[in-house]
Design a protein that fits this description.
By secondary structure, this protein is α/β, with parallel strands linked by helices. About 25% of the residues lie in helices and about 10% in strands. It has helices at about 20-25, 40-50, 100-110, 130-140; strands at about 10-15, 30-35, 70-75, 115. Helix 1 links the parallel strand 1 and strand 2 (about 30-35).
Length: about 150
C-alpha cells in the first residue's frame, strides 16, 4: 500500500514576532521553512519554542532559495507608518517601506500563496495609494489577490 498523502505545506514567516501563524497552523500539519525576526525578545522566544526552525533575521536579506520550496509566504510588516495612531508616514517611512520589501521577497521566493496582515489605516494612507502600490506589485508578479478587514477581537 502506498501513502498518497500530499507533503505538508511549507511556509516562510517574516516579521514573525513570537509566531502566531505557527500556533494557528500547527494543527493543520503545516511546517515552517524558516522565520525572519530581528527583535531580540521574540527571537529568543522562537529559539526556545522552535529550535529546529532557522531564524533568518532580516527578511530583506533572504535570497528566496535557501530554505527550499516555500508554498506560502506570510508576514505582518510593521504597521506604525500606516496606523491612525502612528506617524502616518506611509510607504515613505522606514517601516512602511518594508511592505514593498515583502513584495520583493515574494518575487524572490515565488511562493504559491501569500498572506499579508496589517492595520486598516493602510487602506486610507496616501489616498489608498500605498495599498494600490502593494497590490500592483503583487499583480506584476502574477498574483491574484483578495483583502478583507477583520476585527481581531473575534
Amino acid at each position: 500500500m502506498t501513502d498518497d498523502r500530499l507533503p505538508p505545506l511549507r511556509y516562510l514567516s517574516v516579521c514573525s514576532g513570537i509566531e502566531a501563524a505557527t500556533v494557528a497552523w500547527h494543527p493543520l500539519g503545516w511546517e515552517p521553512a524558516a522565520f525572519a525576526e530581528i527583535e531580540p525578545f521574540p527571537s529568543a522566544v522562537l529559539a526556545h519554542h522552535y529550535p529546529q526552525v532557522p531564524n533568518a533575521g532580516d527578511f530583506t536579506k533572504i535570497k528566496g532559495i535557501e530554505y527550499g520550496t516555500v508554498d506560502l509566504l506570510v508576514g505582518g510588516t510593521p504597521c506604525q507608518d500606516f496606523s491612525v495612531a502612528g506617524l502616518r508616514a506611509g510607504l515613505a517611512g522606514e517601516r512602511g517601506n518594508l511592505t514593498l520589501e515583502f513584495v520583493r521577497l515574494a518575487g524572490r521566493c515565488r511562493a504559491r500563496w501569500l498572506v499579508w496582515e496589517n492595520v486598516p489605516g493602510v487602506l486610507s494612507i496616501d489616498g489608498g495609494r500605498a495599498l494600490g502600490a502593494f497590490l500592483g506589485g503583487l499583480a506584476e508578479l502574477g498574483y491574484g489577490f483578495a483583502y478583507r478587514v477583520l476585527d481581531a477581537q473575534f
